[in-house]
Design goal:
Radius of gyration: 23 Å
Helix content: 25-40%
CATH class of the largest domain: Alpha Beta
Strand order of the largest sheet: 6-7-8-3-9-10
Shape: globular
Amino acid sequence: MTKKEIILTQDLTKKYSGFTALEKLNLVIHQNDCVGFLGPNGAGKTTAIKILTGLLFPTSGTAQLFGYDVTKDLKLGLANVGTVVETPEFFPHFNPKEILSYFGRLRGLSHQTIQERTKQVLELVHMTEWSQKKIGKFSKGMKQRISLAAALLHDPDLIILDEPTSGLDPRGMIEIRNIIKSLKKQNKTIFMSSHLLAETQEVCDKIALIDRGKLMHFDRIDLINNKTGHESIIIELVKLPTQLQISEISKFDGVKNVKLDSTELIVEFSGDKKQKAEFLIMIQKLGLQVVSFSTIESNLEALYMDLITDSVG
């Protein structure tokens, strides 16, 4: 069964005097997709999101949400959408319950629905205990969680997030990512911009890679990571391995190449998690003392760097 198209852009372009922020963006995002809109700062991510949410008009091309052209039927297009665009700011003397009540009334929700959904979304973003505290005293991460709660108040099917972890400390970033993961489990469609590779890989199922206003690549992350069938692993050791030990490591099924850099082995490896665990056991049986064993590069990272470098050149 074909999934419904939730976001559709066709040749979407935004130009300013002497500058093209977005050039002929063509995207199709289906129901229940979780797509990372990935690219460096200034790539055109926010421009595209602002057009989708009615904050900017395109120079040419079209953008649709749920089949509605956002330049003509914005209210209908956004009716089933929750958005967080840029850094949220609220009336500092309001508390979260008051803010959510205000947004709920703007959405036309009934008093009972506002009360029920306020309780649910505050629990989801882990802000229940702060529900009656003044927002002016909140950290940026707490404000970000309240903005997410406001976006989710009307239980939308599509959630659009512009750099949701930008400027947060590590703990705040983890909290926001965990909330997004919980939304995926609710079968929400998520379109999330980010310039962070690790964040995109951890949360999203697909990536749309953009640079200098142009879409460079759009695919499922698992397909990207399976294209070459290998990953690079860095193994930090207490002391240098012997040539015999390196030779034995090279013979292990799944090892494509071995390089020695100081007390670190860099291994190009092909295999699943079980094979990787067996590989680690084998290294230890060779008498090598392992300090750390971790993946240092994925095919997504290689693709990202290749495409961004090519576009700059």
